[in-house]
Amino acid sequence: MSIRLIVGLGNPGPEYEQTRHNAGFWLVDNLxxxxxxxxxxxxxRFNALVAKTSVAGNEVWLLEPQTYxxxxxxxxxxxxxxxxxxxxxxxxxxxxxxxxxxxxKLKKGGSSGGHNGLKDITSALGTQDYWRLRIGIGHPRxxxxxxxxxxxxxxxxxxxxxxxxxxxxxxSLRVIPLLCEGKFPLATTQLHTA
Length: 194
Description:
GO terms for molecular function: peptidyl-tRNA hydrolase activity; tRNA binding. This protein has 6 helices and 7 strands; from the N terminus they run E-H-E-E-E-H-E-E-H-E-H-H-H. The relative contact order is 0.19. It is 36% helix and 21% strand. It has one domain (5-193): Rossmann fold (3-Layer(aba) Sandwich), CATH 3.40.50.
């Protein structure tokens, strides 16, 4: 078993491009830019930006749903069913309120933790048993902000936070080849101790 589909979560459109909720898009954009011939292109049947590429010698799909966050499952479920990709071969990259900026954690399964994108993907795949790569963005409370969560995720990070989030994305990119080779324990150790 290895990762065959890497999904970056975010919201489409220039007004959301630099917002915290788009951390998943940032990773997939960086990954696509680092791989020869991996160009994300609009695929209307999945309502997403899609690229077919090779990572560590394995065929991998990259996906950025263009449905807005809370409908991400439409794209993920559609592509996974069409290409017969099992839930445990799916990696969903998303922003995580419960991790500080700069942290990145890998896990398989578990609840959505209130994340609407994950809720919709779980519903579309019929299981929680898929991989998640959680990019820490912090929580308004722990960052001493009086901002509501919904407002917080849809705004840009402060400069110092953004630098830390970018570092977490870079750390995460280094373990993607291991995930695509099915080396989950090694990838997890490397990411969690980096």
